[in-house]
Description:
Helix content is about 30%, strand content about 25%. It has seven helices and ten strands. It has helices at about 15-20, 60-70, 115-130, 145-155, 160-165, 190-205, 225-235; strands at about 5-15, 30, 40, 45-55, 85-95, 100-105, 135-140, 165-170, 215, 240. The strands form two sheets. Strands 1, 3, 4, 5, 6, 7, 8 and 9 form an eight-stranded mixed β-sheet that branches. Strand 5 and strand 6 form a beta hairpin. The model has no long low-confidence stretch (mean pLDDT about 90). It binds guanosine-5'-diphosphate and magnesium ion (MG). Guanosine-5'-diphosphate binds next to helix 2.
Amino acid sequence: MSRLRCSVNVTRDVLELVHKRKAFAFLIDRQPLLSTASIWQRDNGDSHDVQVIAIGKTGYGKSTTLNQLVGEEVFETNDIHGCTRAMQSAEYRFQTAKGQCYFSLADLPGIGEKPELDKQYITLYRQAIQKAHLVIYFLRADQRDYSIDLLAFSELFKTSSERRKVILVINAVDKIEPLNRCLSFELSWEQVQSLELKLTQVSAKFDVPEDRIVAVSAIEQFNLDKLTHKIAEHLLPFLQIA
Ligand SMILES: Nc1nc2c(ncn2[C@@H]2O[C@H](COP(=O)(O)OP(=O)(O)O)[C@@H](O)[C@H]2O)c(=O)[nH]1
Ligand SMILES: [Mg+2]
């Protein structure tokens, strides 16, 4: 079985992340709770990290959303072919004197390209889920058929402890029907109705409560602070005062 490896795209201080997006301020003066931290081997010794991973089908906007969240182009994006073939991460160093600890945000290769790759990826995903404190599972608002997503979801989240780690993100709400022709981005009343219906349907299909689903538009920067607050809510139990 292939071992989980992660290539680190950038390493920064958490304060640099907070400077880009204030909603990450929950990371200031904190450090990972050592008893629950995930341990990664680095060149200069082990690190105790708090780990968030993003998974979902290719083209759903995982890399774009993560880039917008962290305020820089860390992950490669592509509109025709998915291009993330290995786990990649952005690492933010906690300010603590007690050894190395990072807040790590990782982008995983997307499923739905080729069945033979999917098998390999599902194995990788399962290993990554074991190490993650939070899994952001991506869907797209302009998608009607979620059968591949549901199949992968049920393969990946079998136990209740795995399911407790997930939040669903419905990306690209700017594309929800009926399409809005306004130049500036604003959801029309009709789009808000479609979105509410979609949230109810997704919640029922995936058996995930609505308060763990966030609808965003990475391109329009819509609800990205809401997503960051949701991330904070999930991670705070795994952090302690530094
Ligand atoms: N309309 C719209 N397009 C998006 C949004 N987010 C990403 N995209 C586009 O979807 C395509 C795939 O995005 P990417 O981040 O590479 O998807 P990934 O394969 O899931 O990492 C790119 O062309 C993005 O510009 C969004 O919120 N709205
Ligand atoms: Mg990608």
